[in-house]
């Protein structure tokens, strides 16, 4: 049954991917002005503009070019960068490591911090701990990622010199070197994510803690931590896992600003550089790649539902 559900969900993502691909490909046609002239610049000759227009496929039919582009994608090719002449797939592969490291560490830190915060805030509802947790959540939602990033860099890198202010080290250089270059970016990126998970965890736990089986567990003399994290949290896990999956979009969007602030050579920086240079094949490839990642994460979340709550059947 689970295998059939996975296959059905995979098939259901095909129309979504086609819609995303159509939108991404249409960027060349819906932006104002002539993309070839914008890329070439004000001093370009008509011959240079015509060459760029031909390289982008703008001199051919929209649907013919779209079909050719889809065929390239099915073969693992996302096009060629206009300025560097390198394959977009190769450029994404080069920048994938730093972005995956940043997002993975942020995800782990957010879950480890936010879930206990939400559980304890629900347990101590109405107390100072609960109010402080919710105040922290509001602060995390209110302050933009780049502002938090600059504050952290100024305090911990410039003033205290505890951590590097920019750059990235691969895991092959050692765990500590890899970690110390990602601590500040992960904290900056994870602020809004922690706030989101903590609030949803608190709400879900408040509903579960009012159930009869929790009162029964207390009457039987089970320890408070055992009731909270073993029984109540397990039954409140479905909405928490849902918001964790949805929040991946926040990580993807926040990675662009975070990598720019801390000079991390990841996909976010690649996207910003491509936008500034109007390198549309790279923009298209990165957007399509992130869309596939997001759909995959949501597929995993859907499959986790049946594991976390046996009452759910596909």
A few lines on this structure:
By secondary structure, the protein is mostly helical.
Verbal overview:
This protein is 77% helix and 0% strand. It contains 15 helices and no strands. The protein has helices spanning 2-30, 35-40, 46-56, 62-74, 88-123, 128-142, 145-159, 175-180, 183-209, 212-219, 224-235, 237-246, 248-261, 267-277, 280-308. Helix 5 crosses helix 13 (248-261). The radius of gyration is 24 Å and the shape is globular.
Descriptive key words:
mainly alpha; 314 residues; 77% helix; 2 domains; 15 helices
Itemize the secondary structure elements and their pairings.
Layout: H1 2-30, H2 35-40, H3 46-56, H4 62-74, H5 88-123, H6 128-142, H7 145-159, H8 175-180, H9 183-209, H10 212-219, H11 224-235, H12 237-246, H13 248-261, H14 267-277, H15 280-308
Helix pairs in contact: 1-15, 5-6, 5-9, 5-13, 5-15, 6-9, 7-9, 7-13, 9-11, 9-12, 9-13, 12-15, 13-14, 14-15
Instruction: Tell me about the largest β-sheet.
Output: none
Taken in chain order, the helices and strands follow as HHHHHHHHHHHHHHH
CATH architecture of the largest domain: Orthogonal Bundle
- CATH fold-level topology of the largest domain: MetI-like fold
Number of domains: 2
CATH class categorisation of the largest domain: Mainly Alpha
Please state the CA-atom Rg, rounded to the nearest Å: 24 Å
Strand content: under 5%
């Amino acid at each position: 049954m689970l295998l059939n559900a996975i296959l059905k969900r995979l098939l259901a993502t095909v129309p979504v991917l086609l819609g995303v691909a159509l939108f991404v490909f249409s960027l060349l046609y819906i932006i104002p002005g002539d993309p070839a002239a914008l890329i070439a610049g004000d001093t370009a000759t008509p011959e240079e503009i015509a060459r760029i227009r031909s390289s982008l496929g703008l001199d051919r039919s929209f649907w013919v070019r779209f079909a050719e582009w889809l065929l390239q994608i099915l073969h693992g090719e996302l096009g060629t960068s206009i300025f560097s002449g390198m394959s977009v797939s190769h450029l994404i592969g080069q920048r994938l490591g730093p972005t995956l490291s940043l997002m993975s560490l942020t995800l782990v830190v957010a879950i480890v911090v936010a879930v206990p915060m939400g559980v304890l805030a629900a347990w101590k509802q109405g107390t100072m701990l609960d109010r402080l947790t919710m105040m922290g959540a509001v602060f995390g939602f209110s302050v933009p990622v780049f502002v938090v990033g600059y504050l952290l860099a100024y305090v911990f890198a410039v003033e205290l010199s505890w951590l590097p202010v920019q750059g990235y080290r691969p895991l092959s250089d050692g765990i500590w070197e890899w970690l110390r270059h990602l601590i500040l970016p992960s904290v900056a990126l994870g602020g809004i994510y922690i706030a989101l998970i903590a609030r949803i965890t608190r709400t879900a736990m408040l509903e579960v803690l009012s159930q009869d089986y929790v009162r029964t567990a207390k009457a039987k003399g089970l320890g408070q931590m055992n009731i909270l994290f073993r029984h109540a949290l397990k039954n409140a896990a479905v909405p928490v896992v849902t918001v964790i999956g949805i929040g991946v979009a926040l990580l993807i969007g926040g990675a662009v600003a975070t990598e720019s602030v801390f000079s991390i050579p990841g996909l976010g920086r690649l996207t910003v550089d491509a936008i500034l240079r109007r390198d549309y094949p790279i923009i298209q490839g990165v957007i399509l790649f992130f869309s596939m990642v997001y759909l995959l994460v949501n597929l995993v979340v859907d499959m986790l539902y049946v594991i976390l709550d046996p009452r759910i059947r596909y």
